[in-house]
């Protein structure tokens, strides 16, 4: 009897924990939970193996922590889980000053069997292993669109918010490439889970 009361109290506190997303609200239409993570909804895909390019147990993510992706992102589970944690714990926090929440993200690339920056002879891209995603913009519930291309160099609140968003990804992701990094990332934010002994690489 005593035990069941405690169990009931635990269940109740888990359900009413403040800030916990209501997962049922965004599961409609994307009912498959991916990678054992209730924050990841979409489809499971067959293993990918094209030459050196490969992903075991790939997933096509449609919705991540309540945020809709413009086009499904093909990723491995490690990267999909990292994306979910970042959106939920860091990215939403980064846009808080705009008094809104991210509702969707524009995906420019995810899995792609190619070399780095598509240059001939370069090393295999993290995109070729399902470790990377490129994002172009973030749409907030209040209608504001934060665009890497248009807002990065602005000194207004949108410019500050997009820089805060990018900063928040450094650490959760092992590599973060933005317009400050090189000419290949003037209109997209590259996030990948490749890890380095020296820590996150966010030039
Ligand atoms: Zn990329």
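^ Assign residues to that structure.
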């Amino acid at each position: 009897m005593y035990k069941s009361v405690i169990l009931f109290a635990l269940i109740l506190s888990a359900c009413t924990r403040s800030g916990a997303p209501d997962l049922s609200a965004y599961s409609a239409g994307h009912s498959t939970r991916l990678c054992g993570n209730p924050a990841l909804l979409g489809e499971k895909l067959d293993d990918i193996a094209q030459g050196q390019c490969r992903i075991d147990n790939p997933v096509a993510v449609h919705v991540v922590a309540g945020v809709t992706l413009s086009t499904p992102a093909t990723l491995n589970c490690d990267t999909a889980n990292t994306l979910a944690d970042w959106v939920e714990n860091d990215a939403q926090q980064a846009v808080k000053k705009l008094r809104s929440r991210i509702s969707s993200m524009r995906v420019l690339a995810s899995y792609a069997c190619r070399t780095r920056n598509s240059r001939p002879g370069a090393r295999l891209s993290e995109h070729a292993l399902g470790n990377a995603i490129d994002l172009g913009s973030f749409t907030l519930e209040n209608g504001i669109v934060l665009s890497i291309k248009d807002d990065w160099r602005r000194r207004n609140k949108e410019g500050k918010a997009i820089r805060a968003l990018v900063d928040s990804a450094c650490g959760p992701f092992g590599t973060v490439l933005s317009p400050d990094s090189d000419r290949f990332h003037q209109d997209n934010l590259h996030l990948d889970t490749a890890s380095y002994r020296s820590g996150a690489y966010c030039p």
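The radius of gyration is 18 Å.
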